[in-house]
Amino acid sequence: MKDTVRVYIGLFGVAFFWGTSWAASKIGLQEFSPLHLTLIRFIVASLIFYFVVKIFYKDYVIEKQDKRRIWLLGMLGVSIYFILQHTALDMTTTVNSSILIATSPIFTMFLSTKLFQQEELTYTGIFGALLAFFGVFLVFTGGKGISFGQKTLIGDLLMLLNSVVWALFTVLGKDVVDKYDPFAVMAYAYLYGTITMLPFAFTPGFVASLKAASITTWAAIIYLALFCSVYAYYMWYKGIRILGASQTAMFNYINPVIAVIIGVIFLKETWNTYTLIGGTLVFVGVYISSASKGVSKGVCEDSILEKLSN
């Protein structure tokens, strides 16, 4: 159980860092375009991963066929995910994006339990996921509903596809991290994903923006790379290994709530009763889903680890 508790604490850290990434990104976006900011974040994170692997995992061996699977994970969770997200954000509203991204844990739950049969689907787990989703809905709509239409249709569909891509990244990583160290897996996946993004370094203005970036912007980039990429991605896969994909995915619901809290406290953004109710429902939903032990396989694995260590 000690391993489980540590992973829960670590995933709350992931939710915090990803929630604060919006504020850090706003700093970086003052001098970088969204695409260039993402690319330099990937490059810095990949360098950190590379040096850690070279120092602490220099004799670690990953089989050739598994490296191909890890490359696929890098494509899904790094390059394809962010390309889709940035493209969709330009074609739909922030509210629509936030709601549609919040469908990812639901996709993860059904992919993991029904398609890949990694876990057991429970009614309590479903209820917790839907409750948390409704909480995110209230936080971002303020009780006013959501507006879908022809103008945002393509962007909305791309954002929905983006959620499916992250769900696949989460579920497909389970077998790999059961076999290998999660940090090594994530390091290679991130390196591979970044390599596929490198052609964007040749887009106009990239080198010029690097030269002109201020210390504050570089501090924001290092924060995004170290905490929101290296730590968060590693802990995400460690959560998948210990808890399972569905239970780990539930922590995605906390990210936007943290982002809203940071925005209200530090950026003086507005909030209302729906924000408070929605945020509360998110935490209650995540708690219900976690307490339900809906990912029986992950719980069994944790019990096995305990017995082996005694």
Q: How many discrete structural domains?
A: 1
**Structural class category:** mainly alpha
- Low-confidence regions: 294-310
- What is the number of helical segments per DSSP (H or I, 4+ residues)? 14
Amino- and carboxy-terminal Cα gap: 12 Å
Could you say which overall geometry the principal axes of the C-alpha atoms support? globular
Portion of residues in beta strands equals under 5%
Radius of gyration: 19 Å
Mean of residue pLDDT?
88
Main beta-sheet annotation: none
Give the fraction of residues assigned to helices.
over 70%
**Beta strand count:** 0
Helix-strand topology string: HHHHHHHHHHHHHH
Note down, in words, how this protein is organized:
- 79% of the residues lie in helices and 0% in strands.
- It is built from 14 helices and no strands.
- Helix 1 (2-28) crosses helix 12 (254-266), helix 2 packs antiparallel against helix 3 (64-89) and helix 2 packs across helix 10.
- By secondary structure, it is an all-alpha fold.
- The protein has one domain (2-118, 146-254).
- The protein has helices spanning 2-28, 34-56, 64-89, 94-101, 104-115, 123-141, 153-179, 182-197, 206-212, 215-243, 245-249, 254-266, 273-291, 296-309.
Features:
310 residues; mainly alpha; 14 helices; single chain; disordered C terminus
Which secondary structure elements does this structure contain, and how are they paired or packed?
Blueprint lengths: L1 H27 L5 H23 L7 H26 L4 H8 L2 H12 L7 H19 L11 H27 L2 H16 L8 H7 L2 H29 L1 H5 L4 H13 L6 H19 L4 H14 L1
Helix pairs in contact: 1-10, 1-12, 2-3, 2-8, 2-10, 3-7, 3-8, 4-7, 5-7, 6-13, 7-10, 8-10, 10-14
